[in-house]
From TrEMBL, chain A:
Keywords: ATP-binding, Nucleotide-binding, Transport. CDD domains: ABC_Mj1267_LivG_branched. Residues 294-322 have a biased composition (Low complexity). Gene3D superfamilies: P-loop containing nucleotide triphosphate hydrolases (3.40.50.300). SUPFAM superfamilies: P-loop containing nucleoside triphosphate hydrolases. This is ABC transporter domain-containing protein. Residues 282-329 are annotated as: Disordered. Signal peptide: none annotated. Pfam families: ABC_tran (PF00005), BCA_ABC_TP_C (PF12399). The keyword Nucleotide-binding applies. InterPro entries: AAA+_ATPase (IPR003593), ABC_AA/LPS_Transport (IPR051120), ABC_transporter-like_ATP-bd (IPR003439), ABC_transporter-like_CS (IPR017871), BCA_ABC_TP_C (IPR032823), P-loop_NTPase (IPR027417). Residues 35-281 form the ABC transporter domain.
TrEMBL record, chain B:
This is Branched-chain amino acid ABC transporter permease. One of its GO terms (molecular function) is branched-chain amino acid transmembrane transporter activity. One of its GO terms (cellular component) is plasma membrane. Keywords: Cell membrane, Membrane, Transmembrane, Transmembrane helix. InterPro entries: ABC_transp_permease, LivM-like. CDD domains: TM_PBP1_LivM_like. Pfam families: BPD_transp_2. It is a multi-pass membrane protein. It comes from Spirilliplanes yamanashiensis. It is found in: Cell membrane. The keyword Cell membrane applies. PANTHER family: HIGH-AFFINITY BRANCHED-CHAIN AMINO ACID TRANSPORT PROTEIN BRAE, HIGH-AFFINITY BRANCHED-CHAIN AMINO ACID TRANSPORT SYSTEM PERMEASE. The keyword Membrane applies.
Length: 329, 329
């Protein structure tokens, strides 16, 4: 995309330059990390869903978090954003410890997440979904709410900002519709636009492209890149390797709860550990491509070999990294 | 057939004591259930605590009427906190279980022998309403061919409808404010609201208190209108009628509870006046129904009517069909 060319995208150029000398290994130190995670462990009964030793997220870059289904990506998001409590571990956002901080306070500190299963507020209009995202609204206080004069002006400002974002996300025609009447892809767009109403420093997107049709995908990708140019840090989960390669400056790979590799998209996709994690150690093919909606929208699926009780990730075939090609030409 | 009587009692019921009491109770329940999505099955306890708080203060302890009102309101706030703090962090159904149990506990406490020194046991309390009727400005009753109200009734109805108007105004102001937007968003998906930086727990407590206090106004009016209170009034069926009324009028509609209450009591009164007349003039042979059975049949007919209404108009009188259908996501 033209917007990718370095002259048009100074933030991308900066991110790429900053990450150039970072060692390609799990837990690598970044020059300017916005988020630093240490020894975060989450167990569900006997299953250790997340066991991240150390990971840093570079400020101002787009970092992709990939890994087969069940690798612990969503659980990791939940832990970082206060929606779940780890058994141990700590992490800091902008140098401030975040463990034990309630989810709503995490968001107020500037780290906002979206959900793998879209959470549109169905019986609220699209514009009200957006307005809700604005922080520090005076009219959200019970007593002040009773006196419209106290919040009308701020409401106008909020609405103006919401309308700008809706236009940017091409949802302005749906302004007055119930969010529940939108298509799945439009809801993903709305959820992302709504998260931006919080004015976050860092956005965490859990499979933002899942279920989004290809035409919308392009515009979503454009929006994500736009966030970087606006100075935001993006951490996102995605299965489609073409998209990961297209937009991310850095990739972190999770497998069975642990960070198993880090690097640029191309390097990571050539990494034997990553291929093993996706395909199972014996490369014995894919199982059950219906297990995850992401499978529907992921890139061309590898030929699905009949499952034979292998330990591979459920949608391994559909989400397997493809060797780099047609890139950087 | 005495059509005059049938019509006049039905007309009177449109604006009568029961209509007011249930309208206020349902306005409060609408805040809980309709707007916030809180499954409160113990609304009767809020009315009971208010009525008993007032009556015990005045009758048992000989304190002034206005202090009684304050004690009643204070009791309602305490009840909301007691119910809400342990349950509102849990899944929605916990609140339903806890509230239905709490309402029964409250009723059984009112009628327990041990406490009868203060509560009057199963007989309840009287003689707390003198100060209220001393304030009555009406000196002559209304007596027309269609309706007639004594001066005492006029005073209760006036105060009752003023309270209904105030309650409606408060709900209307709040629900068009940013505060109301957060409340409605919590009904849709509280995790989404949390992710946008709102303290969901605090809003749910506020909504529980607000709905309890608005509903408790019905408890005061009921006690004063009858000049007596009796523990078994505050059983679970009291709450179920309130739910019927909320849904009949249309959940999350400002005027829904009032119109729902008017229709409910008009129909019930009309049928309960009509059936015995029809039996006594022989229009319904006693082999089908006797006068003793007419009351039960009245409830059955109203129940069938409500079922039909909800089948053909699930959104209630005021609701928006599109909106209700979004529920089936
Ligand atoms: N609430 C839960 N209770 C029990 N197990 C869970 C829970 N949430 C996630 N898991 C398990 O943790 C593992 C990681 O899940 P998840 O984080 O959703 O993976 P991903 O998002 O990478 O696909 C899976 O094996 C999943 O079954
Ligand atoms: Mg996931």
């Amino acid at each position: 995309m033209p917007a990718d060319q370095q002259t048009d995208a100074p933030a991308k150029a900066r991110a790429v330059a900053a990450l150039a000398d970072v060692p390609r290994e799990p837990g690598a130190k970044k020059p300017d990390p916005i988020l630093v995670v240490d020894k975060v462990v989450r167990r569900f009964g006997g299953l250790t869903a997340v066991n991240v030793g150390h990971v840093e997220i570079q400020r101002g870059a787009i970092t992709a978090l990939i890994g087969p289904n069940g690798a612990g990506k969503t659980t990791f998001f939940n832990l970082l954003t206060g929606f779940d409590k780890p058994d141990e571990g700590n992490w800091a956002f902008n140098g401030q410890p975040l463990q034990g901080v309630a989810a709503h306070k995490v968001a107020r500190r500037g780290m906002v997440r979206t959900f793998q299963l879209t959470k549109s507020l169905n019986r609220l209009s699209v514009i009200d979904n957006m307005r809700l995202g604005a922080t520090g609204q005076r009219g959200e206080n019970f007593w002040r709410a009773l006196i419209p004069g106290l919040w009308k002006k701020q409401e106008q400002d909020v609405t103006e900002r919401a309308d700008e974002l809706l236009a940017r996300f091409k949802l302005d025609a749906k302004r007055e519709d119930f969010a529940g009447s939108l298509s799945g892809g439009q809801r993903k767009l709305l959820e992302m636009a709504r998260a931006l109403m919080v004015n976050p420093e860092m956005v965490m997107l859990d499979e933002p492209m899942a279920g989004v049709n290809p035409a919308l995908t392009q515009s979503l990708l454009g929006h994500v890149k736009g966030l970087r140019e606006l100075g935001m840090t993006v951490l996102f989960v995605e299965h489609d390797m073409d998209m990961v390669r297209d937009i991310s400056d850095w990739v972190i790979v999770m497998g069975q709860g642990e960070v198993i590799a880090e690097g640029t998209p191309d390097e990571v996709m050539a990494d034997q550990r990553v291929i093993d994690a996706y395909l199972g150690a014996h490369h014995d093919g894919a199982a059950d491509p219906d297990a995850d909606p992401a499978a529907d929208t992921a890139g061309p699926a590898a030929p699905a070999a009949p499952a034979a009780g292998e330990p591979a990730g459920p949608t391994a075939g559909a989400t397997a990294p493809k060797p780099a090609k047609e890139d950087g030409q | 057939m005495n059509w005059d009587v049938i019509f006049s009692v039905s007309l009177e019921s449109l604006i009568g004591l029961s209509t007011i009491v249930y309208a206020l109770a349902a306005i409060g329940l609408n805040v809980h259930f309709g707007y916030t999505g809180l499954l409160n099955f113990g609304q009767s306890a809020f009315l009971g605590v208010a009525a008993y708080g007032m009556a015990i203060t005045v009758t048992t302890f000989g304190q002034p009427f206005w202090l009684g009102i304050l004690v009643g309101l204070g009791g309602v706030v305490v009840l909301a906190l007691l119910l809400g703090i342990p349950t509102l962090r849990l899944r929605a159904d916990y609140l339903a279980i806890v509230t239905i149990a709490a309402a029964e506990i409250v009723r059984l406490l009112f009628r327990s022998v041990t406490l009868s020194e203060w509560t009057g046991g199963s007989d309840g309390l009287q003689q707390f309403s003198q100060s209220f009727y001393d304030m009555n400005p009406y000196s002559s009753p209304i007596e027309t061919t269609l309706i007639s109200f004594s001066t005492r009734e006029l005073w209760v109805l006036t105060v009752g409808w003023v309270l209904v108007a105030i309650a409606l105004l408060i709900v209307w102001l709040l629900m068009r404010s940013p505060w109301g937007r957060v409340i409605k968003a919590i009904r849709e998906d509280e995790d989404a609201v949390r992710s946008l930086g709102k303290n969901v727990f605090s809003y749910k407590i506020q909504a529980l208190i607000l709905g309890g206090v608005l509903g408790s106004l019905g408890g005061f009016v009921f006690a004063l209108g009858l000049a007596a209170i009796q523990p078994d009034t505050y059983g679970t069926e009291f709450t179920f009628y309130m739910y019927t009324i909320v849904i009949l009028g249309g959940a999350a509609r400002v005027f829904g509870p009032v119109v729902g209450s008017m229709i409910f009591w008009f129909l019930l009164t009309f049928i309960n006046a009509l059936l015995p007349s029809l039996i006594s003039v022989g229009a319904i042979p006693s082999s089908i129904m006797t006068t003793n059975q007419a009351g039960a049949v009245g409830y059955i007919l109203v129940g069938i009517g409500l079922m039909l209404l909800l089948i053909f108009r699930p959104q209630g009188i005021f609701g928006d069909k599109k909106e209700v259908m979004l529920d089936a996501r």
